[in-house]
Amino acid sequence: MPAKDLRDWIALLEREGELVRISAEVDPDLEITEIVDRTVKAGGPALLFEKPKGSEHPLLINQFGTERRMCLAFGVERLDDVAQRVADVLEMQPPEGLLEKVRGLRKLKSVADSRPKTVGKGACQEIVLRGDDVDLGLLPIQRCWPGDPAPFITLPAVITHDPQTGGRNVGMYRMQVVDRNTTFMHWQIHKDGRADYLATDGRIEVAVALGLDPITAYSASAPLPKHVDELMMAGFLRGDPVELVKGVTVGVEVPARAEIVLEGYIEKDEVGQEGPFGDHTGYYTAAEPFPVFHVTAMTMRRDAIYPSIVVGKPPQEDAWLGKATERIFLPAVRTTLPEIVDYDLPIAGVFHNCSIVAIRKQFPGHAAKVMHALWGLGMLSLTKCVVVVDEHVDVHDYEEVLFYAGANVDPKRDVILSEGPLDHLDHAPERQFFGGKLGIDATAKWPEEGARPWPDEIEMSPEIKELVTRRWTEYGLG
């Protein structure tokens, strides 16, 4: 079963040989980043820094840093197994027989039972600091890179409510520490948390949960539609609803098993200069005006553990959060584009720079239709380059993709230049948020698309393949 909270998760990682405890005193100012950067790039374990300099709270990092740990988090053998659970719900059809009706009811009950559950008290409020007692300096918040002007909280679950509908949103937005009870809130232009903030007439209450079970922590980063509750998604993926408790100074409910909760508010027109920040693009994000978050209470479990993550030049730990999203949301993408067989968002492309898509091609110009559809689909609309290949091509094999991109593409015919919205952090376009799009049709071309007679691909006959397989040991090759 998936872990119920961060401590349960740490125990699981330790049993699986996926965690190392570091008892030496290590500085959260830059030093931890250098250790983590080397560990992530070597495919190393999660790290629990037991004595971060200047804090009594241990720091957990690199908990998501490999595919195996992401699978452990979800309790599956492959991330595609999580996607299948999502697909089973999205692809439900009216049941025809009694057995199908029973199965359908079970699926619907699973979704209904996933809604968060309010409880009377939670471990997250074993210690309560209010007003002048609030001190973010108690936490081992990292300054990750030399150009960062201050420490940043990097793995929060930021909880807000739409002032008009009351709908909950949970997002993962970095928070630059300003002083003992103030941070900036990095609400980017395309994010739902920013939409809630802009919809308010004055003040919006905010709660920030730190140190959650891995599925709930992941759900804060998931690109869900605004009307879908991230905590309900977490409960569905966990197979167990997230327990919530009411905040002590705000009306926002918070995860009862969180290690640390920051409660507070943001005024509509109060902003400050946030950044620069060493970001997942591999470059520093320039300083910009962002809202100011005032912390009215800091609640904690006893001996609370602080979670962190480092982003920077890929690969970093967030690569596997992104890969989980890629796999889990494939069924959702297929509900709009059923012709898509598979897709890949390369880690080196920091997810919004490139998407490789395999399709079942059914008509001339089909690849172009898919490109434009993706450029209008949720957060995939920010993708800068889309490469489309035929269904037999393995989109995760970049050498194979490059072969077909070279073999099948006539740049004059098969390259599309367009324009549209781009990621907030993309520094390349002349204008922020908007710029060029590149589409590459690497499918085999049909006569209707202006192709000359298309040659057959080289492939050995099945009989000879089978013969050589049978005689392989006779050749002395294995």
Task: Describe it.
This protein has 478 residues and is α+β, with helices and mostly antiparallel strands. It folds into two domains: 6-307, Pnp Oxidase, Chain A (Roll), CATH 2.30.110.10; 337-449, UbiD C-terminal domain-like. Helices cover 27% and strands 26% of the residues. The protein is built from 14 helices and 23 strands. It has helices at 6-15, 31-41, 67-74, 79-90, 98-112, 192-199, 214-219, 230-238, 318-328, 330-336, 366-374, 398-408, 411-414, 462-470, and strands at 19-26, 46-52, 59-61, 117-118, 127-130, 152-153, 157-161, 168-171, 175-179, 182-184, 203-210, 243-246, 253-255, 260-274, 277-278, 284-285, 288-300, 306-307, 340-344, 354-359, 385-390, 415-421, 434-441. The strands form five sheets. Strands 5, 6, 7, 8, 9, 10, 11, 14 and 17 form a nine-stranded antiparallel β-sheet that branches. Strands 19-20-21-23-22 form a five-stranded mixed β-sheet, with helices on both faces. The chain has a four-stranded mixed β-sheet with strand order 1-2-3-18. Helix 4 (79-90) packs parallel to helix 10. The longest helix is centred in the first third of the chain and has 15 residues, at 98-112. It is globular, with a radius of gyration of 24 Å. The protein starts with 5 loop residues before the first helix and ends in an 8-residue tail after the last helix. The model has no long low-confidence stretch (mean pLDDT 93).
